[in-house]
Write a structure and sequence with these properties.
single chain, alpha/beta, six-stranded parallel β-sheet, Rossmann fold, globular, 11% strand, 2 domains, 428 residues
Length: 428
């Protein structure tokens, strides 16, 4: 029997009706509890300055009744997917607009979105400002129910054909997916990159997943996802893998730091933020055993550089100053880091990437279950070391990531040929 946690305890005490609302709020409530600490780069505190600037933008757009003219006349799609995915949809003739909860400073709203966008922004800020206890009160649950009705009315009137989201667990995406199921409109998630884990909750409520390569699809299937609901799309930012000889020496080593989960869905796996530092210390020791005197350290963007600065060995590590990871990779002669999309980024920039993925009784250093794809069984395939000694051996042998394995993780073409069929049949 697992140790209970506060949110799960409150959830189990709720009525079935309230649990439906709780499901939409769970991830954001979790962040309020676990997304605290100096190790995070951003603490999620409410900013009146940000609120006022975005409120002003929404008011301006509403006064002007700004109409967004689409260059296309094809089916209308809502999307807040990552990167330049929306531009690719437009190239295919689709009308593409951001959902009404998208950041007002950058949103391309449909003409009908302005009023509901105001509602979304107010709801976002209520969730941000209120305490967990205030959010869990019946009065706020009723507010969420009323908001959900308004969003459903908006979706019903907009007459769109499909929706693409980056996840299905954040508040607005969770509510949207549940509404789309009622309306029989297809919902799709564009996977952020190379998954480091496969949750029992995340990505399970949408109709379809889009992944970058065949091996990633295979891994999702092994974790219980239906193959017919997963499409291999590739990614528009990664259309040409590097075909030359990878740089791989110890002259300019770049170490990438771990991320640290601040939110959980139904199952809490608490990690130790001190292990963020331990991870870098283990890599430092492996490198020092091979005569390396200096290396650059690039913390995960969600982590605080100041936090690292207080703990790491500054005689060995230099904090990477580049704002863009591409510049960091171009300067590197070898990259060592966790399971990350940076593996693909490194390959695209012609530098070798060795994965350091410590394993303890089936768990990684951040207390998450080991992903089978990068576990001991396949360690040789993807150049993975699971302890400090094995990492030193791997670095010394200096093997290079293979083009064939990268092609399994990343399809070298962007393919949305399945989309007309998905739109035609609607929600599965």
């Amino acid at each position: 029997m697992r140790i209970p946690d506060y949110l799960k305890y409150k959830y189990d005490q709720s009525s079935k009706e309230d649990q439906q609302i709780f499901d939409h709020l769970y991830f954001d409530l979790s962040y309020k509890i676990y997304g605290r600490g100096d190790h995070f780069a951003w603490h999620g505190k409410f900013s009146w300055k940000n609120y006022a600037s975005r409120k002003l933008v929404l008011s301006y757009k509403n006064i002007k009744k700004k109409k967004v003219n689409s260059i296309n006349s094809g089916p209308l799609i809502l999307s807040n997917a990552y990167h330049n995915f929306n531009l690719e949809l437009e190239k295919l003739g689709y009308q593409v607009f951001h959902p009404p909860w998208y950041d007002p400073l950058h949103a391309n709203y449909s003409p009908a979105s302005l009023n509901i966008a105001q509602e979304c922004y107010e709801m976002r800020n209520k969730i941000s400002q209120k305490t967990v206890n205030e959010i869990l009160q019946p009065e706020f649950f009723n507010e969420v129910r009323e908001f959900k009705k308004k969003l459903k009315d908006y979706f019903s009137q907009l007459n769109f054909s499909a929706a693409f989201f980056p996840n299905d667990i954040c508040f607005f995406e969770s509510i949207a997916v549940s509404i789309l199921k009622e309306l029989k409109i297809a919902s799709l998630i564009i996977i952020h990159g190379l998954p480091a884990g496969y949750s029992e909750e995340e990505n399970r409520s949408v109709d379809y997943l889009l992944v970058w390569g065949d091996e990633i699809k295979k891994n999702y299937v092994e974790h219980g996802f239906k193959a017919e609901n997963i499409f291999v799309s590739g990614h528009p930012n990664y259309l040409q893998l590097y075909k030359g000889d990878l740089r791989s020496d110890l002259s300019q080593v770049l170490v990438l730091g771990q991320s640290f989960n601040a939110c959980f869905v139904k199952e809490v796996n608490l990690g130790d933020c001190g292990n963020l530092i331990l991870y870098t210390e283990m890599i430092k020791n492996a490198l020092r055993s091979l005569g390396v005197k200096k290396a650059r350290l690039r913390p995960h963007p969600s982590m605080s550089k100041k936090f690292y600065h207080e703990f790491i060995d500054l005689n060995f590590f230099e904090i990477d100053a580049n704002s863009n990871i591409k510049n960091s990779l171009m300067e590197a002669s070898l990259v060592i880091g966790p399971i990350s999309t940076s593996l693909v980024d490194a390959f695209m920039n012609g530098v070798n990437y060795l994965i350091f993925y410590p394993e303890y009784n089936g768990r990684d250093l951040m207390n998450y279950p080991i992903t089978k794809m990068f576990g001991i069984e396949h360690a040789q395939d993807y150049l993975v070391a699971h302890d400090e000694e094995k990492l030193a051996e791997l670095i010394k042998k200096n093997p290079k990531q293979s083009l064939a394995k990268m092609q399994g993780l990343l399809q070298e073409k962007f393919d949305l040929s399945f989309l007309p069929q998905v739109i035609a049949q609607g929600q599965k």
